[in-house]
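Need a sequence for this fold. Nothing fancy.
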């Protein structure tokens, strides 16, 4: 590592590691800490208080980043493409992204309609649909218990 703390000589930053040390060897733990936390699950990261603190840390960071993102969207010095990307990202994070809908239609044709009609009437115990010569609706429909639909 270089003189600058936390940066390798080639400019990379090492991945985060648990801040605890082994009680036997005194060496730092090599595991990754829990998300938003500073220690791994073995060194206390599973404790409810540590989980709550990690969650609060992540929420605070996300609020700060959202504020920065909104600042970018309204910054007059940034190019329009960057502002548009910031606006889209902010809306997406707020759950207001553009709705994507796909409408599918398919004409099955008369051959399939006759097949489905045949299956329907077979299920009802009839060999074919009854012939309707003329029909008229008279009155109102009711359920068996007298309620109207």
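Here you go.
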């Amino acid at each position: 590592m270089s003189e600058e703390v936390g940066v390798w000589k080639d400019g990379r930053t090492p991945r985060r590691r648990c801040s605890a040390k082994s009680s036997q060897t005194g060496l730092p733990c090599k595991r990754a800490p829990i998300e938003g936390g500073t220690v791994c699950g073995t060194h206390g990261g599973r404790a409810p208080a540590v989980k709550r603190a990690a969650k609060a840390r992540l929420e605070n960071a996300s609020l700060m980043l959202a504020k920065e993102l909104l600042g970018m969207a309204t910054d007059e010095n940034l190019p329009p493409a960057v502002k548009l990307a910031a606006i889209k990202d902010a809306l997406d994070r707020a759950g207001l992204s553009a709705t994507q809908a796909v409408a599918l239609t398919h004409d099955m044709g008369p051959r399939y309609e006759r097949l489905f009609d045949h299956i329907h009437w077979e299920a009802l115990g009839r060999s074919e649909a009854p012939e309707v010569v003329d029909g008229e609706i008279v009155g109102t429909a009711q359920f068996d218990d007298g309620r109207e639909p």
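For context: Confidence is low (pLDDT under 50) at residues 1-6.
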